[in-house]
Amino acid sequence: MAARIEELIEDVLKEQIRTKEANVKQLQSQINPHFLYNTLAYIKSMVELEEKEAAVSMTMNLSRYYRYTTKLSSSFATIQEELSLIENYLDIHRLLTDDFEYEIDIDPALLKMEIPRLSLQPLIENVIVHAFRKPVKYGSVRIRGTLEDGGLARLTVDDNGTGLAPAQLEALQTKIRTAPSDQIDAGLHNVHQRLMLLFGKSSGLFLSHSERGGLCAELVWQVQEDKEAE
């Protein structure tokens, strides 16, 4: 009887993971039209101004970004691959509006480890969409990764943006753990659920106030040998 119960629980968890992966594929297929329109308009303007290098740079970044986000053949990616996507995404936005900087500092031991695809992108998108509003004159995004004793991995994204009031932060944390209300909330919710289901209930996405004035979003999970890239 105990073995049967354990088998049923395992089947339920597998079904939950399959459901979450289906949600990921749905999110991957959603192309943000405003983002695409703005980048295409930029390319058009650079071509008209005969700024060839700028047009080529934007085209290459855009191509790499969409090639990665629409790839559905694998549910996992190395942290190095995730960071390459983030650099493409941030470089695109810096070409559109050069009013922020970013810094990446990752423990080399993390780079070949695998996590669910598109785990970092929703966090960075949240910063770009919400953090850098007035009165912030020049934004700063910092992405850090550490591997602690005992195999606890952390990927942290923090910014110097406008941040959230305590009530707003609590409301966003609730949305992440329950029913999301918009696309960005859905992305954050999906990241949290996938990490928790794959790596345990102590894993997931955790939000707090950043010492730099904005928001601190942290991905935390217990490293498992079968989730490390060969």
From TrEMBL:
GO terms for molecular function: phosphorelay sensor kinase activity. InterPro entries: Bact_2-comp_sensor_kinase, HATPase_C_sf, Sig_transdc_His_kin_internal. GO terms for cellular component: membrane. Keywords: Kinase, Transferase. Residues 22-96 form the Signal transduction histidine kinase internal region domain. SUPFAM superfamilies: ATPase domain of HSP90 chaperone/DNA topoisomerase II/histidine kinase. PANTHER family: SENSOR HISTIDINE KINASE YPDA. This is Histidine kinase.
